[in-house]
């Protein structure tokens, strides 16, 4: 297993410095270790274990992947990799609760914590392969707070005052979960809110008290699971701008790839019209509407990168809420819980936007919300408040040292529509003057503006493979 080490001395040059050791950083390291040649890798990651990051550090079995095993392999060349690994775990008695799902292994939705173990194991195997060629991986357990890019190297300042340097560096800093990220110009939402994944904190809520949740996407589904595990049995009021929530993920049959058949469909409006037509066709044949929808996914990066900024804005404004609730679907267990709570009359999901958090009159919390169609804001009180607004993609709003330092040094600029940062199609970072770096790269969620979908397991697995190939070419060669 990789060594967790004190940071090496500054003159100890690494080949690649990976900033962030979540799933992206771990998969990139694994790809680099498996490539021919001898290289020295440094991964700077404050968490004790590589490969987990925000998503796969989950400790509750109820917080599962939102896709089944057959869709979540970390090996782009072997889609069955996770299914086989899970089968071994189940045979070894490592996940007895899997039987409760009552489906074949490929259709299981594993806990995210277990998936984190899988990612770590695949990294450990790659380390053994790399060690045979003399390659090494060191995990430096802290945070990068600043970065300088020179002609021949990148130098990183660590939180503890030390510095490390490498020939190339990769920003694999992932998602900044809104609930856990201090934000520039922050309203008091996070100060008043409970963490969506903190089951222990939820045990302190009055079990019969009303819980207010801001945001109605997959983080809200996780929150419902956390509340349930914490023994909460009171009302839950959810508020989001459109009042839409994730559909249940089912396993639809294959459907013709209609975008492949008609590549002339380009604008968001055309896409939506064609997709609706396909969904109607499917339903008329008694086929799940999720079948045509699932064929769209592979085309999203192409459609998004071809679109003009105007079309992208149209998509974000008119299609995004719909896309989020239909495409980013809920695992069946979460969907069943949500439905049950609605049926019991305990859960209500409202179309309303948060105006501000206000001091509570009693022990709980107060928020002012504007409900859709109403001119005046209304005050709502509850026993507790949860911030389930998901991810902050605009780095200018992330009050963390590294994003702010990179912006100040003009080493990065916001990506299209201020989603993540600007990079070229190979992941080379573009600075504030438009120069494409040959030393600094990025992968995963920071590439949201370039590809729109750049966060899921399959996205980062593919990017890790492509970027490893790019990094193992000569750094001076043009990207
Ligand atoms: C709660 C949650 C659930 C998810 N569930 C799914 C799912 O079911 N299926 C799916 O396909 N996708 C899911 N995702 C998407 C998920 O983000 C990706 O699958 C993947 O985890 C992204 O990995 P990452 O390493 O890029 O980001 P992250 O997991 O966010 O990891 C980034 C790492 O970088 C580190 N870091 C940040 N800044 C610095 C710094 N300055 N110095 C050093 N280290 C730093 C952080 O500590 C973190 O560990 C989920 C995301 C979240 C947040």
TrEMBL record:
A matching Pfam family: NAD_binding_9
Cited InterPro entries: FAD/NAD-bd_sf, HpyO/CreE_NAD-binding, L-asp_N-monooxygenase_NS-form
Domain of life of the source: Bacteria
Residues covered by the FAD-dependent urate hydroxylase HpyO/Asp monooxygenase CreE-like FAD/NAD(P)-binding domain: 18-175
Name listed for the protein in its UniProt record: FAD/NAD(P)-binding protein
